[in-house]
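Recall the central idea of this unit: under ordinary conditions, the amino acid sequence of a chain determines the structure it adopts. In this exercise we apply that idea directly, starting from the sequence alone.
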Amino acid sequence: MGLVVKEVRDFDRAAWNRRVESISEGTINQTTHIEGFHMVTGGGFRPRYLVAEDEAGRAVGQLVLFQGAFAVQEIVARPLLKRLLPLYDWAFRTYTWMQGPLVFDKQRFEEVH
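Accordingly, the structure predicted from this sequence is:
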């Protein structure tokens, strides 16, 4: 009786957002809309969508985890350094999140966290 946490890449975005909206802790920071916000504002972080599933394959928790590198905007702004971006991203990769993970089955709160 355990959870499986996995990254989902090809998923139903509407279903993801409905789950976020289904609980009071859900905010826009945990929806798929945050991806567009980071692209518009020039953020160097890419969202990774993580789901905690129970034994039956139901989502009991989820998290938008952002992957990026510190100060990537400064590197992109310098043409000579721009070619080094893949190496920089690999060497200085960071992960962060905002407001989460969201837990849909409150009896499994600690397990999801």
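The chain has one domain: 4-105.
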